[in-house]
Amino acid sequence: MARHVDILQHPETAIAEASATLADGLPIGLPTETVYGLAADATNPAAITRIYETKGRPRFNPLICHMSDLAMAERYAIFDPISRKLAEAFWPGPLTLVLPLRPGSDIHPLATAGLDTVGIRVPQGFAGELIRAFGRPLAAPSANTSGKISATSADHVHDDLGERISLILDAGASVVGVESTIVKVEEGEMRLLRPGGLAAEEIERVAGQPLKRKNGASPAIEAPGMLASHYAPGAAVRLDATAVSPGEALIRFGRPDIAGAENAAIVLDLSPSGDLAEAAANLFDFMKRADGSGAAIIAFSSIPDEGLGEAINDRLRRAAAPRE
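That's the Threonylcarbamoyl-AMP synthase sequence above. Prediction below.
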């Protein structure tokens, strides 16, 4: 069973225990501002294998490699001018850049799923401090069973993976609440591979050019979070609900009038005031609470597809997708 360490109360203990566990090639539950990650040494193939085994994650699905700062990232990847501009503007923060691997990079091919690119992020707060102390990048997908709801608290990690890992660091609830935005620059143009905790409009403002979205069929897997079915609770998910049947769970946004809400198994509002940042922070926790209500179906009211709403709707569409 995993040991919990409160990093707010015991930061030095957390650094020491986490570094020792990582050095042993074992993954840990690591808080970041986006979601909790299942982190392990990105240069150690045995450690990376344990991430895939612990999550039950397909090995063709690459992992984001987390760095302490831009200087560390430059040792492992090659930056074009646009990617560098975005890194300087938004790191540390909820932005992942997919970049060409630098020749001779120590990041193991298991972490990149054999691709010649790597997704890199510099997280805010404690995670960055730990990486700096450890001295090597950490591969860290979300700390949950593959395809299921992402963890935004230490309790979420414990409930899902607590019997499979030895250490969970606890920093309270994740502030952002959804995974990072993933961007790839090719031939001077930016592509949005996954909407996330940094709004596309902010990226476009800094870069001075539009983010291109995919059209038609999904491309090959280039980054995490691109599988059609992902972030899924045990219950089925129904979107754009204007009414609910008795016994369904209801998750709404902005106090809409939903017919039959009084007979729902549980009613949760992502943000009564209509704040998309608050909604993103609550999303995965509310999905877990609704899933725990015993309802067979979770109905979601409509959410604006702008700003962080783009990331929220991306997660909901994948949660509602047919499951194999």
